[in-house]
Each structure stands twice: as C-alpha cells, then as structure tokens.
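Bumping with the actual sequence this time:
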Amino acid sequence: MQKEEIVKLIKHVEQTSGKNMDLGELTTSDLLQISPSSSRENELQAQVTSLQQSIESIVGELQRQKMKNALLERQLNALLCKESDEIYFDVNTSES
C-alpha cells in the first residue's frame, strides 16, 4: 500500500516538474532531491526522511545486538564446555 502511494507521488512529481524518469532508475537520493511543489509533498518528504533515519538507526542497533548476542553465545558455550569438562573430570576421579 505505501509503495503504491510512493509510486503515485513520484509520478505526480514527474508530471508537475516535467521530468519523466524510469521508476527503476530512481534512488532514495533522487527522491529526496525532487523539490516538492505542495505542502502535502513537503510533509510526505519529511516523513520519508524521518523514516529513513529511523531505519538507519534501527539497522545499526540490530547490528550491535547481533554482535552482543554472538559474544554472549560464545561465552555461554565456553562455560558449558568448561562445566562439561569439570563434570567429566569429577566422574573419572571418583571412579578411580
């Protein structure tokens, strides 16, 4: 639904600016460089920019959490291996 709205907005901007671009060639920076001709377009462009910044922030946080998770998994595995070795050692020494 949102993608359709963005495509409609792009087509509207193309018509009002006289530019006819292939939608496949448009990049995010292209969309931001198109100057909006109405207050509604200004509002939508501000929302798009805000959403992009939010996405970048969330992606960064996701990467940090993935790294933290990987570290915690390694620490947990090391503890489990150590505990397993200790149990094995205790069993073998008590059998002797």
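The tokens above came from a reply further down the thread. The CA atoms of residues 40 and 50 lie 15 Å apart.
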